[in-house]
Fold:
Amino acid sequence: MKKAWAYLIGLSQGILSAKNWLLAYALLILLPVSIMLGTFYQRSNDVLEKEVTRTMQLTLKQAGMNLTYKLNHIRDSSNSVFMNQILYDNLLQKDKITDQLGQIRELRNLAETAQENEDIFRLRFFVEASRMYGGDRINLYPLADMDQYPWYEAVKEAGGGIVWTGVYPEIYNDYGEKKIFSAARLLRNPRDYEEIVGVLVMDVSETLVQEIVSELQFSEKYAPYLLDGRGRLIYGTAGPDGEEPGAEAGSEQEMNQLPEDVLSAISHSEEGVVKRTIGRDNVNVVYTTVGTTGWKLVAQVSEAEISHRATALGQFTSIATLAGITVMFLVLVFVLLMFMIQGVQRRVQMILRMIRKEGIGWLEERRSMPDGDFRLLERSVDHLIHKVNNLVEESYQAKIQEREAQLRTLQAQINPHFLYNALDMINWSAISHNAEDTSEMIEALAQYFRLSLNKGRDNVSIEDELELARVFLEIQQNRFPSTFTFSIQAEPGLESYIIPKLTLQPLVENALLHGIRKTRSKQGTIEISVRLENGDVVLTVADDGIGMDPKQANRLLLEPAAGQQADGMDGSFGLYNVHERIRYFAGNRYGLSIETEPGAGTVVRVSVKAVIKK
Structure:
């Protein structure tokens, strides 16, 4: 008894422990699946209805094409007889008995030839009773007999065109009663078109239509049928219990005579699907047109029958879906447990590594934390991760500060470099010229330092950088009069972009001192241009000086050269400096590129990310 009670207690505790999983299963699996199955059932109903009606339409269309093919043969046979001169020669009045007997023989031969077509049951000629051959009632009938047929008026209105009749019973003297339908047309005297000499009637057995229509079994309740162009019933097959179409609904008119709105829709299109209501049934009416006659081949199927098929399909699908989702849920639980176990194992390994690194005291200090060992482990790991994040952040900030310090150091190395040259230039100018020139040089030098210092900011606008280059070159023109010219071109709108300060000055200094001043004539031209190219700012400094070896030029960008040049200038250091500062500012894919050849001048391109001044 105690064991049973302990078992029940353990079971209840297990259920309580699993309540979250059961709730998750109900909310995340069972409820969505129920909604999904309901939606699926509705959508499957709609899809199945569309597929059934589409299949019916394709089948009806094929049946209509088969019927059209056979009726075309009958039409061709009728045209062949209608245009045969022998027919008209033997329909005209002749006085001699022998001539009339010859006419009978010719007409019968003509009829027998036409009847060799297996689809044609009988060819009949209706002619005036005054002619002796007009009453044998095998192939020849009195014209007055046509008055008993309701479709005779349509034949007269059609002139010589073919009129297709509906299915009707006909009694033949040599055969008895047979259900047929006919292709009838009026015959006129070719010599006097106003004179009617007879009617050509080509009878076709009902079985030609029956064989095609009887195969169209789409519904257990509604049978297919044929309507003429006015919506009147031409032919209808029996229902499942032998009754005529509409017997089960209680009204043949309700079944086979479509409502006016449905008839109107059918008459204005070759094929399609129209919905109607018969009693309590919502019915899909599928139709197609028989090409030769304009008849409408119609089949019906109720939505209840389609829903019944969808229900049978849905039951199997629902069971399969629930079983599949249950299996997926169990697999999901297994996977989640596996990840949880792996996570705990990974965290335990981290704790062990920390214990080995910092000793057991690292963990003992956190023994006072509540909620069990796993909570202690979780909080310890979180603390460790937080500490590592802080260390990474501190390391990252230290690297940023180091890069900024390097950038400021590189920039600081440039200012003294030009200061010595400027003082030297002022000294030579004071010796070679009057004191007024010295004043001008000092003013230009003041403007240069004002632009280069830029109030302590590391970046300047392109407009200020171009102005600095202009002032520098004007100072150099005073230093080396009549030795070089320069031009500055910039695309409009670039004034709002910024670049590292003192980007152009080292380049134009190299172009002048290491390019133009080392030519034999010591004369040349410096061209400075700025433009936007593929979203980047491209600055170009070109000179027509002595140039250099391309390999040497590439080395100048990779590392600063050891020692100074003979004139006290270290141009290579300037190129390396600018190149590194651009990469610090914009990224490693930016910087300097040099195009040069000995004796062909030098073009230095600076590619900088387009950054708009804030």
Observations:
- The two ends are 83 Å apart (CA to CA).
